[in-house]
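Researcher: Re-running this chain for the archive, since the previous output was lost when a drive failed. Same request as before.
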Amino acid sequence: MSFKNILIPCLACALLAFSSLTQAQEWPTRPVKIVVPYPAGGGVDVLARALANQLQERWHQSVTIDNKPGANTLIGSELVAHANDGQTLLLSTDATFTINPHLYAKLPYDPLLDFKPVTLLVSFSQLLVVNSKLGMNHLQDLIAQAKARPNSLSYASYGPGSQPQLATEMLKQKARISIEHIPYKGIPQAVLAVVSGEIPMTWSGVISARPHLANKSITALAYGGRTRLKEYPNVPTMVELGYPEVDANVWVGVFAPASFSPNLVDRIHADIQTVISQSAFRDKEIEGKAYDYEGLGPDEFKKYIQSESLSRSNLIKTSGIKLNP
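Model: Regenerated structure tokens:
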């Protein structure tokens, strides 16, 4: 093979790489949309809007949040998986990538092939809360009623296979109690249903529960994290209460459609890191909302998802949740 025949393909590859890098540096040239597969007003939505506001200033383009709740994130996630405008991102939770694949025989998206992980933003654990009029102050009060009056209690979640269902089904199994599952569209709706007395209990992140805990319309019985919350030091963890298997941890990440180049994914990750590294943002939007900052990059995040998917698969099997056909 001649030197010319070797040089031309090499130049072509170099030009392609340069073009990809240049496009990544110039992006975005049009408004950006971040799809959030949860209702407005919940913790995930609030975080997305705070991030969008900062990215908008950095990118000098409009960055809007498009809430597409329902079907345990399937609706919004499918929209992004099939987006081909080069301007749409997904901000979602572990449900999309590590839970749904083990619940549904067929998904409208491929969690491995249709997306590129950009960054793992934060993780947080949830509080088990009940309507205060029930007079329950301890987890044992709930368990005692469930045993004395089987099926007298019900709990809200934000969809089949969501973290509240996984956690409660595991609690039911370990405590040997029976509680009916009632799915809602999102955590805000589930929490308000508990506040109104429409349903006795649910799991909630701090941001959604905080105002209702403050006015004493709901009571926190337990926390799903490994250590107690600084904000609520009197609320014991599920580990302390003897139920270490009850996992109520959620993570939130940003994803791009598979069509995005690796250079562009790296660029978006770097810009998000710049935003989150600001102390004012960290104090208000992360520490102030009881989130744990993670900040994993694309490669680390991909490996984390694969590990979490295996863990969630085992949890779903152990919890006894039946897979959808």
